Sequence to fold (559 residues):
Amino acid sequence: MIEIQDLVKTFHRGSVNEVLALAGVNLQVRRGDFITVIGSNGAGKSTLLNCLAGSYPIDSGQIKIGEREITRWPEHQRATLISRVFQDPLLGTCGPLSIEQNLALANRRGRVHGLNKGVKRSDRNLFRKQLSQLGLGLENRLKDSVGLLSGGQRQALTLLMATLVKPEILLLDEHTAALDPKTALQVLELTEQLIAEQHLTALMVTHNMRQALQLGNRLIMLHAGRIILDVSGDEKSRMTVEDLLEKFYAVRGEEFVSDRMLLV
Amino acid sequence: MTYFAFMGALEQGFAYGFLVLGVYLTFRVLDFPDLTVDGSLPLGAAVSAVAISAGIDPFVSLLFALAAGFCAGMVTGILNTKFGILHLLASILTMIALYSINLRVMGRPNLTLLGKPTVLEPLTNAGVGMFNAAPLLFGILSVLALLLLFWLLHTAFGLAMQATGANKQMITSQGVNTDRIIILTVGLSNGLAAASGALLCQSQGAADVNMGVGTIVAGLASVIVGETLFGHRSIGRALLAALLGSLVYRLAIALALSLKLGNFSFTPSDLNLLTALLVVIALTLPGLRRKVLRR
Fold:
């Protein structure tokens, strides 16, 4: 169970460029939830994920994973519980290192990186087995440097690395947005497969409403730093893209009205 | 070039080999331009000279120098990571602070080791000539350092070190505290630089507070010359290239100094100009080669 309470985040605080990115987000994620996150540009989707992962310090609020209050944990410490896949395929893997070395680092997520051998022989068998389920032939290229791989291959590898040690929560930030449609579909299928197999808890940001409805058991919509829709189960599976758009414009319309009333 | 000049260049090349391996660690692996070495090399010399003068075994004095250099490097690392000072500036701050510290350590601007034992004594006592003993011993020591670094870079810590230099976001997401990696690696690099200083002061017979001037440029020149000539496709190759680069650099300098064109010859005061030229050539050569090959 992951609890987010009154999360507030402002960028450029105190300057003319001040932006309220998260205006008090409350969210309870149950174990095994696969939540898709949608919202327009600047709604706060990525900021929410970055605040969860600890990339940005937050202004106020509380984040709890299980019984652990992690609000003040630095990013690398949170990484022992949280794993993530970024939009940029280059960000999740280390180019100059080989495939097996990248996997070895991921296989030690949350443990001390000490003076023991980086890649052990027993690791290699595990890595080969794990890589073979990607169906990309990477299991025969353990020693190739990751810089030689395509964006899609790197993103698939990042996904595998993020789940090699089971995380409490997996954060996916538009992780297929930078890939071509065919590769994006493959990576998405892999995402579904890994989440289902390991019963992972996941938050997935996407711009594609159809995708957001298709995947996962729960959907939240962010607008102006707030969660304006939170549906799950049957209610979610009955929803259509038109319903989502309607909800979205309804919220925007209300705001418009209230603004005008202020002026009058 | 005379035989003595040749052996002298080898001696210098191997003694500076530690420094060059250290510079490779910071500049290439960690992507951290570290000028601390200009201060930590004479620090190593000072610590070693003072220790030997106090009657401590010359080999043990090497360890003292290493430890002192390590601490100096950690200061730079901490200034950068914990206080958020730009890496270049952090290293310059430590470097100038070390100038005063080195004077304090020695109590005077230079300290001679005349008549004192050095690490070369066991070899010269065994009948090896002075001009052969230093290149031999320093060669063995620097190859040992190379092997140790090769091992280190393939440990889990070493992989995290490489990833910290290449992709900080990735390695942070794998739960590694990059601050700690940076502090330890810059420390290690400066420990190696200090070891260079200790060996140099023992072979030259004196430690001098100004002996560190231009260290970083020489170190960088060696790394780049090595990469250009010997490649850097794998870690092992890059380490070897760095050490060989140190030898080539010192040989090139010795060659230039022994050059006579009519009445003209270079003097040691021309060294900085020669180094700068060498670095420029080494930096432009790979690009030039690519251009020519493309045609």
The beta strands of chain A are 2-11, 19-29, 34-39, 60-65, 68-69, 82-85, 169-173, 202-205, 218-223, 226-232. The first strand of chain A starts at residue 2 and ends at 11. The radius of gyration of chain A is 20 Å. Chain A has a mean pLDDT of 91.
